[in-house]
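Case study 2.
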Amino acid sequence: MATQTRFSYRVPGYSARLARPIISSLLMVALLSSGITVMVHASGGSGYALQFDGSDDYVQIPDISTLEPAAVTVETWVKVSAFTSSGVSGYQYIIFKKNSRVNDFEGYTLWLDNSTKRFFSTVTSAGGVQRGISGTSDANLDQWYHLALLADSTQTSLYIDGELQGTVTTGFALDYGDTPLYFGRTGEGWDG
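Prediction:
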C-alpha cells in the first residue's frame, strides 16, 4: 500500500467572502503517482474561497520533485465573475505548472479563454508537442464549476462538473521545469 502524503499551504489573509472575484477557487491538486495531495485553503471556514482580481493576485507553491509525478489529476472549483483579464493573452490561468521549455511551456494547465468563454486544459511535452482539450459549452458568469484535468504518458482528459469533455492521446511523458506551481497566473508574462 502506497504511503499517502499531504502537503497543505495556507494562504494568510484570505478570509473575505466571495465578492467581486474574476476567478474564485478552492484549489486542490491530487498527484496520483506520488500519493500527494496539495490543498490551498482560504481561512474562515465554510462559504469562503480564494479571490483573484484578474490583475495581480496569485498563489505559488515552490517547486519540489514530489509535485512532478508521471500521472497527475488536477481539480478545482471555479466561479467566474467576468470574462476579462489584464494579461496579454486574453486567458485566465487557473492552475499552471511550467515544463522545461522556453515556449510552448504548459507542463499542465487549466485556463479560461475570455473570447470563447470556454475552459481548456493543456499539456506539453519536452519537445513542444501540445495536447489540449476545450470544454464543450460556454461558461456562465457567477456559476460554480468543478474542473478536473487527468494526464499521463498515454492520454489526457478534461472533465467539467463530472462530465467528460474530451480525451486525447498524448504519447509523451509529462515534462516539468523548476518553477513554482501557480494558481491564478503562469509566472511567464501571459498572466491575467
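The mean pLDDT is 73.
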